[in-house]
Write a structure and sequence with these properties.
heterodimer, A: 303 residues, alpha/beta, 10 helices, B: 1212 residues, alpha+beta, five-stranded mixed beta sheet, 34 helices, 29 strands, 14% strand, globular
Chain lengths: 303, 1212
């Protein structure tokens, strides 16, 4: 059970990265969605015991890990946003080294376990090459392997899919979904698709505050009947933006394919109602700073 | 924006960044302290025996500033420049700024040159501030009569050295590391550069200058030395040119040197250009942060298409792996981290740079080690381990500083920190693992150095050296003493890093600590045992006869102290090196007094052991005979007695009876005995003073009755019932126990006398084991109460002169009974009257078979080599030179008896003692010899130390003991100078001209290097009280007698010397030079020429210095005519030979042990000229061969300066 209470983090400057964040989660995958600079990484690093908060507490299974981060390390799988490895070690040696440090064991031994973990992230053919020679995507996968190793009670992953190609992203989704079945996974991202695929619950963070703590379905359902899509010329965009909140605009064959939020009135001419997406909800929430809707997330993830 | 403007922006950015770095603050702090020290006269400049201008030379002179700036930049600046310039591009690469920077209009060249300029200008700013501080301290704060070291303010004196010696070095020491950083992107390679250059410069280019070195090679080394110090030293300083010259003359660089400085700066700039090109190539490849050279490391490879395109895994789940987590134990984690560290360190390029450096250091230690008279040394394993100790300790500490910091920085630099820090491993295990990894690497380096040393010894053994390899000295010195230093140092650096969390701050602090330590141990007062963390110099006094015998206890406590500090330092590191980033707003909370106090209490247990050990060392050394109490007691002795007793002349001792029971294992002795005094003067003695050591209690008797003399702070004054009448006698008895040395020493250092398990050497010069009659004016005198040297009137020697050596009065007889453990042999003066073994103790009685003036005791576990009326007692393993030394002793006894006076004693002994003292002394019949002198030197035709030192010490039997010189100027020359002269003669007699010439050249060079022009006095005025007097007394004294022999003729001089000894050896008037000359004049075939000679060489100071110019040769019929001009650029009027010669003079046949012979192919033709000071003369030599060279004084008959410059080689 993770309990975050009134977490505040102020960097010298001063910059208030977190302004009273509170969250609770026990099992399943909790997505943390927010724009750049929202405070996601700060929150993740505090939960991982790497950063001391200015005030507030983080309890994991009843233990305050913000004052004694040793308590979280035994239970943690962590994948930071930016990371590297010892470049002179081979992938297998690097992972073995981390498995030893984490105390991960398996019936067939650490060496075999490292090989099998590398296979799970599709690095078996690069296992004997030095990590310094790997591409960014390969290193990302090694990072994922080490974060998932050893059945950690809580997995904290910060922007995990950055640098992964679509195939590897799917592979990662599968692994993460498996891990989240019986433990807590805290996933920070600004890629809405990651959340929609994986997370039964999402907290949207902007400006150091949680502006929504909901499920993807709940977020979408609030917009039911209020999202419309149509095409407009480029010169019409400004007038449209004055009248409606534009949630998405994609230029296709010289015309803008636009989704607008029109909760209270008729949609623009030629626009058809469409099913709201999580991205619509995310953009509107981060833009408007809507209050949380009060809907409690389910205790178990929805498949 | 112009190119220049962009360059300037980069340079300004780098300058601003560099000046904010803590490492430059440390440098600035050190330099300000140095400037202050010099201005106060607390720091003096010296290089070996050569000090610029003597004790009162101006520190503001251009020569002093040149020395200062040259050495400071080499020894200190190189490190900071390597950090400042070498890391610039590495830092930018780590911070990933390259691609952004280079996407602008900034060109690579602008970026690289701008960065370099910023780094160099930052150093120049610091250097300018140092020069400004020096000028301010010297000319504003330290002027006036109290600052004799300060001369007039001449800006050029600061700026010329800065431009000539400083700037080229700065550009070079910045440019090359800058390139290395750009090329390798590896900090350790950058740091290796100053290490390598410093080793080469300080360990070789500056210091290696044997007197027999070829001038052409010497010149090449001068130009190759980046510091410029060799050029300065060899050209201006080595041969003292006098105070006036150093204080007022300009510093004129010769063209060759000027070009070498331009080339040095050019090399630095070329390195920067190479860095620019390398960076440009790297950018073209899109490779912004990788290593372009690799040692066992592959180049960056493109991602494997197979790996990228591999199909998904088998679809098995993570659950199938059945993983579980059980956080690793402390040691398991530490071992894993240590292994990873070692694995990384061993593939780093730095290792492969340092290993050759260490090999170089080890090999050079063996190849270039020189002993007395510049003789090559025989390096035993112990001596080799000890000689490398300081450099190796320092080198590995530097390496550990960089490796430890980079190791602690590594996770951050490689962006692995966040994953690493969230593992469940304790921070302690992390630190221990890293520390252990680094120390394992250090131990590996020691192992490599050990293998190299073993290889050197083995190869030398295969080439004929008699010394074999032993492992234990290396294990003891390096494993036992050095390894704890590395453990401590690594822990210290770790704690410093934990505190500062800044690479530059730790480098600055670490380097400052190393520099300060080396400075204190070499220039100022050595650090005490408590502070000597690196155990610097602790191996200097290594003895094969018993390692650690002298200071073993202090060293053990010192090592334990620094080992015990490791847990404390690691505890501090653990406290400071939190894996969680602190919140800035909570820092004040942490600094509350209660929080700080609580932390202190928690750390208290870690501080207990260090505090106890430091206290044991501190109080143990205070209680010893070097401690303040003992020093105060000696001062008290001086204060209470100097006014009363300084000029008191004692009656003679007629007999000494001593019983000394030695227990070397506990440094103890029980002494009892009696001195019989006879009043040989014409006045009664109401009081008799006797100086005793700190032996409490002493049971005194007077004429057999218990007596309590007045104790004047160690001077015991006896007042007989009736004054001791002329011709009367009385006996003073004594009994006491002693320990010497007593307690712990305060700091690393040797001892002149000692009772140690490894050996015993005690003399009656001072009250170390036996009371000394009279007041001893040297006790309790230091810099605070030292008087100016006494001025003697010209006729001071008229009438009866007291002896310079021994106890005064007349010679006396001795009976000395010594008891030692059975395995020891104990020697003293005279002949062995009896020897007895009882209950594991050996008792010997030595009786003088002819009166003596001094006595001594030496004991050890000896093997004996007996000769003809001689014996050599030596450490059983030191038999390498014993045959040669025995032959020398035999020859000395025979020939000196023939030349000077019959040897009056039965046996002439020579005994070895441990190298805790480094001298040799010629007591009557009982010469003592440190193991480092003669026993461990290698015979070479150029320097034949084993023979020379034996010949010199044996000569003291005649020139000190049979003929004891008088106290006062010119007295000691009759002892030391005459012994050198006897050595020249014995060389010629036994080994022929080649050895005589080489020995004469060695002592001539010693005179040239060691004299101080401004303080040098004539031989008859030299009394040993001034700097440089020793070389005048020994080297010039010996040479002048050799020249006098040319003047008088050999047999005339020897006959005169025999007459001189006959006249003085038995009387109570001890002679000085004037007495000798009065006798010799009677034997001079040309008294006027004799007077002219003695006037300039004994009563004046002259030093000829010959120069050849305009030398040509041309065919004349079947022969050749050589013409030229020879000039005496020095002083003195002498007739000098000039020779044209071809081919090598000496045949290689007939080296050690036999007379050398002239090579059959050698040819020469000669002429001679007589030249006064400043005169020159043309010469013409007819030769019936094609001359290859012309040289002045081919037979080495005239003492002169810079003999090597008085040779002209015809071009081939």
């Amino acid at each position: 059970m993770l309990e975050i209470r009134n977490l505040v983090k102020v960097y010298p400057g001063p910059v208030a990265a977190l302004q009273g964040v509170s969250l609770e989660a026990s099992r399943g995958m909790l997505g943390l969605l927010g724009p750049n600079g929202a405070g996601k990484t700060t929150l993740m690093r505090i939960v991982a015991g790497l950063l001391e908060p200015t005030s507030g507490t983080v309890f994991l299974n009843g233990e305050d890990v913000s004052t004694d981060p040793r308590r979280v390390r035994r239970q943690l799988g962590y994948l930071p946003q930016h990371f590297g490895f010892y470049p002179h070690l081979t992938g297998a040696a690097m992972l073995r080294f981390l498995l030893v440090l984490k105390g991960v064991k398996a019936p067939r031994g650490v060496k075999r376990l490292a090989a099998e973990l590398l296979e799970r992230v599709n690095l078996q053919d690069a296992a004997k090459r030095k990590v310094g020679t790997w591409s960014g995507g390969m290193r990302q996968r090694l990072g994922i392997a080490q974060a998932l190793a050893g059945n950690p009670r809580i997995v904290v992953v910060d922007e995990p899919t950055a640098g992964l190609d679509p195939e590897e992203r799917l592979r990662f989704y599968r692994l993460l979904a498996e891990v989240a079945e019986d433990r807590l996974v805290l996933l920070s991202t600004h890629i809405v698709e990651d959340i929609s695929v994986l997370c039964p619950r999402v907290a949207i963070l902007t400006g150091g505050r949680i502006v929504a703590d909901t499920t993807p379905r709940g977020a979408r359902s609030r917009l039911e009947g209020a999202i419309f899509e149509g095409a407009v010329d480029k010169h019409e965009m400004e007038a449209l933006a004055d009248r409606f909140e534009i949630t998405q605009a994609v230029l296709i064959e010289g015309r803008n394919r636009v989704r607008v939020h029109a909760p209270d009135g008729p949609p623009p001419d030629g626009f058809e109602p469409v099913a709201p997406s999580l991205e619509d909800a995310y953009l509107l929430l981060t833009r408007n700073g809507a209050a949380r809707d009060g809907e409690r997330p389910p205790e178990t993830p929805e498949s | 924006m112009t190119s220049f403007a962009r360059w300037a922006v980069v340079a300004r950015r780098e300058l601003s960044s560099a000046l904010r770095r803590p490492s430059y603050w440390f440098l600035f702090g050190i330099l300000v302290l140095v400037a202050w020290g010099f201005s106060q006269g607390n720091v003096t400049i010296s290089s070996g025996d050569a000090t610029a201008g003597g004790e009162r030379s101006h520190i503001t002179s251009v020569f002093a500033q040149s020395m200062l700036q040259s050495v400071l930049i080499t020894a200190m600046g190189a490190w900071f420049l390597a950090i400042g310039a070498g890391l610039v591009l590495i830092r930018d690469a780590e911070q990933r700024v390259g691609e952004v920077l280079h996407s602008t209009r900034l060109t690579v060249r602008e970026y690289v040159w701008g960065s370099f300029a910023g780094a160099v200008v930052a150093f120049l700013v610091i250097w300018s501030l140092f020069l400004g501080a020096s000028m301010g301290f010297n000319h504003l704060l330290a002027t006036g009569a109290d600052s004799p070291q300060i001369g007039p303010f001449v800006p050029g004196n600061y700026l010329v050295p800065a431009l000539l010696l400083g700037l080229p070095q700065i550009v070079f020491f910045a440019g090359v590391p800058f390139f290395l950083g750009a090329w390798t992107r590896r900090p350790i390679v950058v740091f290796a550069f100053p290490v390598a250059t410093l080793l080469v410069i300080l360990g070789f280019l500056i210091s290696w200058s044997p007197s027999w070195l070829d001038p052409a090679i010497n010149r090449a080394l001068m130009l190759a030395d980046p510091s410029g110090f060799r050029w300065l030293n060899e050209t201006f300083l080595k041969l003292d040119r006098g105070l006036d010259f150093y204080n007022t003359a300009p510093l004129p660089p010769d063209t060759g040197f000027l070009l070498s400085r331009i080339a040095l700066a050019g090399a630095g700039l070329l390195a920067v250009e190479a860095a620019a090109r390398n960076t440009a190539r790297r950018l073209l490849r899109g490779d912004t942060d990788s290593l372009v050279i690799g040692f066992r490391r592959g180049r960056r490879e493109a991602p494997s298409p197979v790996a990228q395109a591999a199909p998904g895994s088998s679809g098995r789940t993570l659950g199938e792996l059945a993983m579980r987590t059980d956080p690793p134990g402390f040691l398991t984690a530490a071992a894993a981290i240590g292994r990873a560290e070692v694995r990384e360190l061993t593939v780093r390029a730095g290792m492969y740079l340092f290993v050759p450096l260490i090999l170089y250091q080890s090999v050079s230690q063996a190849l270039f080690a020189l002993g007395p008279f510049d003789s090559p040394l025989l390096l035993t394993s112990g001596a080799m381990a000890a000689r490398q100790f300081n450099t190796l300790s320092l080198l590995v500490c530097v390496l550990l500083l960089f490796y430890t910091v980079e190791s602690l920085m590594k996770e951050r630099a490689q962006r692995f920190a966040e994953i690493y820090r969230t593992t469940p491993v304790g921070t302690g295990a992390m630190l221990l693992g890293k520390t252990a990894g680094n120390v394992v690497v250090a131990a590996g380096i020691l192992a490599v150095a050990l293998i190299a040393s073993g290889a050197v010894i083995t190869v030398r053994q295969l080439l004929g050296d008699p010394v074999g390899f032993e492992l234990w000295p290396f294990l003891a010195a390096w494993g036992g003493v050095m390894l704890p230093t590395f453990l401590f140092w690594t822990a210290f650096v770790t704690a410093a890093f934990a505190l500062f969390r800044n690479r530059y701050a730790v480098y600055g602090l670490g380097l400052a600590m190393l520099i300060y330590t080396v400075y204190r141990m070499n220039v100022g007062d050595a650090l005490s045992w408590v502070a000597n963390w690196i155990a610097w110099n602790s191996m200097i006094f290594w003895s094969d006869m018993g390692a650690f015998s002298l200071d073993g206890r202090a060293l053990l406590l010192n090592r334990l102290l620094y080992l015990s500090l490791i847990p404390l330092l690691l505890a501090l590191a653990l406290k400071w090196l939190g894996r969680q980033e602190f919140d800035a707003t909570r820092i004040l909370h942490r600094l509350r007094p209660r929080a700080v106090l609580r932390s202190g209490v928690r750390l208290l247990p870690f501080a207990l052991a260090p505090a106890a050990l430091a206290s044991a060392l501190f109080f143990g050394s205070r209680a010893g005979d070097q401690g303040p109490d003992a020093e105060e007691a000696r001062k008290d002795y001086w204060r209470r007695n100097v006014a009363t007793w300084t000029d008191f002349r004692m009656p003679s001792v007629s007999h000494v009876d001593l019983d000394v029971d030695l227990e070397p294992s506990s440094r103890a002795a029980s002494v009892s005995g009696a001195y019989t005094f006879v009043n040989h003067r014409d006045h009664p003695y109401p009081e008799l003073p006797i100086t005793a050591g700190p032996w409490d209690p002493i049971a005194w008797t007077l004429d057999g009755e218990p007596y309590e003399p007045e104790d004047h702070a160690g001077l015991f004054v006896f007042t007989p019932v009736a004054p001791l009448a002329p011709g009367g006698s009385l006996t003073v008895g004594f009994e006491y126990e002693l320990q010497y040395p007593r307690g712990l020493s305060t700091r690393v250092g040797g001892r002149g006398q000692f009772i140690l398990d490894s050996g015993v050497v005690l003399t009656a010069f001072a009250p170390t084991f036996a009371p000394v009659p009279g007041y001893l004016p040297g006790i309790g005198v230091d810099e605070d109460n030292r008087y100016d040297p006494r001025e003697y009137p010209d006729d001071f020697f008229e009438g009866e002169t007291e002896p310079a050596l021994g106890w005064g009065g007349r010679p006396f007889t001795t009976r000395i009974r010594i008891t030692v453990p059975e395995e020891y042999t104990a020697n003293s003066v005279g002949r062995l009257a009896s020897e007895e073994l009882r209950e594991g103790r050996r008792t010997v009685v030595w009786e003088s078979d002819h009166p003596v003036r001094l006595f001594n005791i030496v004991a050890g576990r000896y093997a004996v080599k007996e000769g003809r009326g001689t014996a050599i007692y030596h450490h059983p393993e030191h038999d390498y030179n014993v045959e040669e030394m025995s032959a020398a002793l035999d020859a000395a006894r025979v020939h000196y008896s023939e030349w000077f006076h019959p040897f009056p004693w039965e046996l002439l002994k020579l005994s070895e003692f441990p190298a805790y003292a480094g001298y040799a002394q010629g007591f009557p019949t009982n010469i003592t010899f440190s193991e480092g002198i003669g026993f461990l030197t290698k015979s070479d035709p150029r320097s034949h130390a084993a023979f020379a030192v034996v010949a010199h010490e044996a000569a003291h039997q005649w020139w000190a003991n049979i003929l004891t010189p008088g106290r006062g100027p010119g007295g000691n020359m009759l002892s030391e100078g005459m012994s050198h002269y006897a050595t020249i003669l014995l060389h010629e007699e036994v080994h022929g001209d080649r050895y005589r010439i080489e020995f004469a050249k060695r002592i001539e060079d010693s005179y040239g290097d060691g004299r101080f022009v401004n303080s040098e006095r004539s031989l008859v005025k030299t009394d040993g009280s001034r700097r440089g007097d020793n070389t005048v007394i020994y080297d010039k004294g010996g040479w002048v007698m050799w020249m006098l022999q040319q003047e008088m003729g050999r047999e005339n001089l020897l006959a005169g010397l025999r007459a001189f000894i006959d006249a003085y050896h038995a009387g109570s008037d001890s002679p000085v030079i004037q007495d000798m000359l009065a006798v010799l004049r009677e034997f001079a075939p040309d008294p006027e020429a004799f007077d002219a000679f003695t006037a300039q060489w004994f009563f004046d100071v002259v030093a000829p210095e010959y120069r050849l110019s305009g030398v040509t040769k041309e065919r004349a019929g079947r022969g050749w005519i050589v013409r030229g001009t020879v000039e005496n650029a020095g002083t003195g009027r002498m007739t000098i030979g000039v020779a044209a010669a071809a081919n090598e003079r000496w045949s290689d046949a007939g080296d050690a042990g036999t007379r050398t012979v002239v090579s059959p192919s050698y040819r020469d033709a000669r002429t001679s000229v007589e030249l006064d000071a400043g005169e020159s003369a043309e010469f013409e030599i007819e030769a019936d061969f094609d001359p290859e060279r012309v040289l002045v004084d081919p037979d080495v008959l005239v003492l002169q300066l810079r003999r090597e410059a008085a040779v002209f080689d015809f071009p081939e």
